[in-house]
Design a protein that fits this description.
about 500 residues; GMP Synthetase, Chain A, domain 3; 9-stranded mixed beta sheet; 15 helices; about 30% helix; binds methylmalonyl-coenzyme A; binds adenosine monophosphate
Length: about 500
Amino acid sequence: MTNTLYDALFAPHATNDELFLTLDDGTQVCYARFVARIGQLAHVLRDAGVNPGDRVVVQAPKLMDTIALYGAAIQTGAVYLPLNTAYTQTELRYFISDATPALVVCDAQNEQAISAICDGAAQVLTLSADGTGSLSTRADTRDTGFDTVARRPDDLAALLYTSGTTGRSKGAMLSHKNLLSNAASLTDLWQITDQDRLIHALPIFHTHGLFVAMNTALLAGAQVRFMAGFDLDTIVRELPSSTLMMGVPTFYTRLLGDPRLDADLVKPMRLFISGSAPLLAETHTDFEARTGHRILERYGMTETNMITSNPYDGARVAGTVGYALPGTEIEITDAGTPVPPGEIGMIEVRGDNVFQGYWNMPEKTAEELRDTGFFITGDLGIKSEDGRISIVGRQKDLIISGGYNIYPKEIEDVINDVDGVLESAVFGVPHPDFGESVMAVIVLENIELAPEQIAAQVEPELARFKHPRQYIIADALPRNTMGKVQKNVLREVHAETGAH
Ligand code: MCA
Ligand code: AMP
């Protein structure tokens, strides 16, 4: 019985006594124990009625059991669907109704609200920050052996929601082959081995922390220092005994802000990797000056996994995202036609890493995934003569704050629903810690409404990281002759405000 992803990432470790995870409280988990836990959790999933192809929604804290649950979903042939722990009930209602899961796993404090949303259509089990909950309790008494369900390379392994320009999040369907091919390319390119110890401070509900970091570590049999979240002191403490770190640019600017960061502290470190948002050239050069390490920047998307990487051995050039990964083709296009090297165009990508389409959204899939297999990323870039890619902008209206993607349309829709609001424009302005932060300019109907009154209605609907840091009331929005709101004008006018 073969199961593409399980056989590559988890099964080989069934008798591996080497160390896998080290947690914040000092707990150490070896690979074999981790695989045994996956087996126990797989029984719980099956008992809960999860069948092959069913979605398992997980909105849970970052724990060993949460990552084992990913393995268990794969072993039972289910589709793993992780959700940001910051999502509000309104946001959860959408994801659950769209994905129609068989099971939802959540923190006990959200059990009641999520049960009400599911309304009997899905089972709800709990996994809380202290590791307790009905999921763990049930697993504790189950067998560790589980007959792995067969899954082929094209079967779905995960469904990851990514916000959309229309305001509605889209579920990106990722197959076993999509995930495994990308993990294999990255492990090879970044030379990850069982001698590595990875600092893992990213959330595990996105591609970066879940697939880029965990799948490569599992494939290589590396050790993982699994941190509940980003904590500067913990990272500074762990750097001298680690070899590898993956982070968003905010990790690196925060480290640079700490006087303890120097070449001595990072002596055993082999590789620092950055992605999910543009790394400023200044951060790149400052980091090298302080530590002697040139950060390796790579580029990816939820729909495509990783697309490019700067080389491990060759030049890591600040402001570029490197070359297409092996097995991945990139074309820079203008209205679908490739443009010559050095010219700006749309970045399109094709390869085993590219997803299977959007869940329940065939029209969206058709708009963004060509019949030729090329996916239209929405990012604008340039390819040099030798194939090196630089991202120069985005055609999609997107804000990236601390590595989280925020689509303005989603926030504008909520603001526009407030009584007394005529229209709004949401955009990103430079922010020293998060790279960009969210700002809203609002035009009112003929009525007095304070920004705080608007915020009080908007914010309960949206995860905290999406909240505008400022609401500005204006008489009108700047528009071009076609009537389109000029967000570039708003960004320029308000550029200074976001830094505060
Ligand atoms: C936290 N807050 C944020 C963010 N994170 N606000 C805006 N943007 C954020 N990213 C809020 C908190 O709720 C808090 O609100 C306040 O800001 C300060 O929180 P702080 O303690 O400073 O935050 P933190 O807990 O230290 O988190 C910052 C972080 C985190 C470490 C940068 O956001 C993070 O881990 N980001 C990584 C995201 C990621 O994994 N992206 C990959 C997506 P209050 O005011 O209530 O205190 S995958 C992807 O993009 C593709 C595929 C790719 O290429 O990787
Ligand atoms: P997501 O859809 O959440 O996976 O985010 C993907 C988007 O993040 C891409 O389309 C890019 O706009 C952006 N992104 C990821 N990595 C980088 C990078 N290294 N530099 C610039 N933008 C990036």
